[in-house]
Amino acid sequence: MSVILNLQSLPPATASMLHAYCDNENAPYKNVTILTTVQMSSPANANSIEDVLGDAWSELGNDKLPALLSRVANNIAIVTSEQGQSQC
Hints:
The chain has helices at about 10-15, 20, 45-55, 60-70; strands spanning about 1-5, 35.
């Protein structure tokens, strides 16, 4: 298992390496879990997360970016803190 914090902070060339590792059919390592986080300043939804990642990696262009997003942003769980609780 691996965890990548603040996925949006990865440089585009580094993020593009996830394309193969997050593939549903042909990943080189099939029995692994890759968890990623995206830190948001406003309330998130699936579209806003894709927008943040798309903006961060826009230099990948329209030929590579959609394929990458379909692999790294296909199973999204949104976690928020409760009101009045401090965040860790």
